[in-house]
Structure formats: structure tokens, C-alpha cells
Amino acid sequence: MAIDQIEEVIKPMEPTILGSQLYYELLPTDLLIGLSVETLHVIPGPLETSGFLDALSKTLSVYPLSAGRFEPSSEPRGKWKIRLTNSGVPLKFLTSNADQIMPDNRVIQNQGVASLVEKVNVTKILRPYNDEPLARFTIIYFVKIGYTAIGFSQYHPLGDGYTVIKFLRHLSQNYQRLPELDPPPSYDPPYSPTSPYLYGYSSPKYPRDTLTTYNLDFPIIDGGIPPLKGNRNEEASHVVIHFNAKMIENVHKAVLRLAEADKGDNVGNMVFSKQDTLIALLVRAFTISDPDNAISDIVTLFMFRGIGATLPTAACNALLCALTDPPSCDPMDEPIESVATRIRLALQRMRDPEFLEAYAAKVRDQMQNISDANIDWDLTPQRGQMFVNSTWRFDWTSPHFGYPSQTQFFHTILQKPRYLKIVQPNPTRLADGSWKTYNGDAEVTFSLLKNRTEIVYADIVV
Questions:
Q1: Which end of the chain has the lower number of beta carbons within 10 A, N or C?
Q2: Contact, 60 vs 398, CB < 8 A?
Q3: Distance CA 43, CA 429 (A)
Q4: Rounded to whole angstroms, what are the CA distances from 303 to 75, 163, 240, 262, 317?
Q5: What is the C-alpha to C-alpha distance for residues 392 and 421, in angstroms, rounded to an integer?
Q6: What are the transmembrane regions (predicted)?
């Protein structure tokens, strides 16, 4: 329960990194126009208000898109832009007399994050000539327990998880008056307007279409999110599994042993990552527990910074779907090492610059078309499909604002069957006041159909 409130609008320190530039043109792959990103960092102490405001102003100088305003395209194949108005980011400081922040320590907390973080209003952002903020902060000090929750919401076209964590790390370092940990984002366009890789280019290696959509033509409501187009409303139960590092290592070794014994279909030559084998385990478990939805397609959200023309520090979004080839047998009979092989091959293919550029050009063409038609990407897995959104390698608690190894991070997930998220677990405060961290562990969150809540672990020994 909030008991006090202060509101500010923080503008970037000028000149910003983009100087006198009036607009920033988004690429079609940035046009996740119906989505926003919400994060919540919790620190075990107070936040110094004036220092935070100063740090945010300095950070917005390097990330000026967050302080701008959105300009939708007004014509087919037109440009979608961020107006570099330096209008600022709204920030609310609140205090609360609640005696807890979250019911438990799990990272994925849809309801908790929604109750503490004021979201950007996607509906208003999409109006022509709007003055709606593209990012918001909600800072809540919990008086009884002495903790502070730092909530952030940003319009997704401004950035994926990589961009958000870099922004927050920059903010955390500025707040602590410490040197930056990361180089600034690059705002240089990777393609000229005449590049064959900008739109529509394809190659014989281009995989099956992965884009399905939902309608954005809906009544204007505060914070409104459109209903899914089509019948995708399967009832699901929320599941969270904490895999410790030893379990993950055992799975990895077991699948490698099986692959070494299996010389067919290139399996024996594969070098799998731990994430490959962990996902393969879950695919087998999902398939065994729900034969009617046996997993044949695994779609992994793939970040393509540093490949082809895209710079390693590229701003905004650099996400594509890495889609596996179909299994060579009935999914019910597919061995776990074969699943891991298909996952690894899909990722390797995405790292081929020629393939990646052709694939990205095709997806840009699709995303430009659907955005022009006022519709957006729907990430709901289709039947027989698993969608993997992993930021396991990101240390989301590295924006710690002076509380290393004591900061907790909370996030959200699309709660649809067979949509899976992998993150690093939060540190835990022990009874004696010390903190326990979980290096190498993984927290996996997903949803199952309500009539399939007993998941069967796959046919290897962990």
C-alpha cells in the first residue's frame, strides 16, 4: 500500500550522444509494436533520490531514444521513427508500509511485477502525433523492511533484453559514480537503403515461416493489450524448476555420452552447450507428458548482434527465431541427443552470416508488412511447438546500485503453454543476514496445459 508519492520527469543531459539529430529510424525487426518490457530490481536498502535522478539524466544522454516519442509510419513501406525530443522519462517515488515485496524469490513474477511497475501505455504510444512517454520508472521504498524496488517499463521497439540490461547497468554505474562497464550503443544503420539485405531478400536456405500475428486494431484503453487473434486461449498452469549446476552438468554429460554412441544424422559430431541439453531434456519431458502436443519444432529466440552487418553494440532489437528442422522420426520416439542436435544445428545456421542476412531480410519484409497493417508478432507457441526465450547468460542482478550479490531481479513471461524462459536464479538472504548466490544454476519457467500438470522427466538419469 502506497503511503506517499513524488513524481518527476527526468530529461537527458544535453548534448546527447545523437546531438542535433531529429529522428532515429527503426528497422523493421525493431517493430515489436504491441509489446513492452518490464523489470524490477530490489535492493536491501534505500536509494539516494537526487543521486538517482542525476544518474538517470546522464544515462538518458547515452540512451536518448528512451526520452523521445514514437512516430508510427503513415504510409505503406514508410519509416517508423523515434522523435528525438528529449521530452524525458516519468519517474514516481513512492513509499509503502507493506511488509513484503514478493511472495517468494522466483525471478518470474507476472502478478507481482504488474502490481509494482507502472507500464508504458502501448495503446497511446501507437496514436499518431502522440506525446506518450516510451519509458517509465517506479521507485518504491518499503519502510518496514528497508528495501527499495526499482521498477522499469519500456516500449519494446526501443530495445530487447540486451539493450535493457545495458541501460540499467549504465544507470547503476552512474548512480555509484563508477566507470561504465559496457561500451555505448551504436546507432549507426547497418544497411544502406539500397542494400539487398534490407527487405525481402531470400535464399534457398531460408527456413519455414515462423511469424504468426495478432490484431492491434482494438479500442483505445489505458494500458490495453489486444486479445489474441484466433483460438489460442488454452488454459495453462505455471511451473518453475530450479536446476542446480550439478544437475545441469549431469544432463550435459549424459547427452554427450548418448551422442557419442549415436553416429547417425551427424549426432556424433555435435558439441552441445549446456543450454542445448537442458532444453532437449525439457522437450522430451513435455512430449512424454503430453503426447497430443508432442514437440516437433523448437523455436529459440536468437540475438544476432555481431553477425553480418549488425554491430555487437547495435541499439534497439536484434532478435530472430532460430527454428529447428523437423525430426527424422515420430517426436514420441526421438532420442534426446537428436533433439539437442536439432537445436544446435538451428543455432549454428543462424551464425552463418550469409544465411543470417538472407533470413533477416525476409523477416524484415514480413515485419514491415504486418506493422503497416497494424498487427504484431504473436509469440504464442503453436501446437507441437516449444518457444524458448533464454537470457540465462545475462546477469540481470549486475545493475545492483551498490548492493552486489544482494540485488534481486524480477521479470515477466508470456503465460502460454510451451513458452519457456530460462534465467539465472536470484540470490537468497539467509536467516543470519548473509546472502547465498547460485552460480551456474538455472531457473526455468513455463506453462503446461492444466490437464498435464504432472511433467514426466525425460529418459536419462540426472
A1: N
A2: no
A3: 11
A4: 29, 11, 24, 30, 8
A5: 9
A6: none
Lowest mean pLDDT among 153-157, 235-239, 251-255, 365-369: 235-239
Answer for the pair 152, 164: CB distance below 8 angstroms, yes or no.
yes
pTM of the model: 0.92
Average pLDDT over residues 358-379: 84
Cβ(340)–Cβ(255) under 8 Å? yes
Measured CA to CA, the distance from residue 162 to residue 149 in angstroms comes to 21
More confident position, 253 or 210: 253
Q: Taking residues 225-244, what's their average pLDDT?
A: 65
| Residue tagged 507502472 (cell numbers) | 118
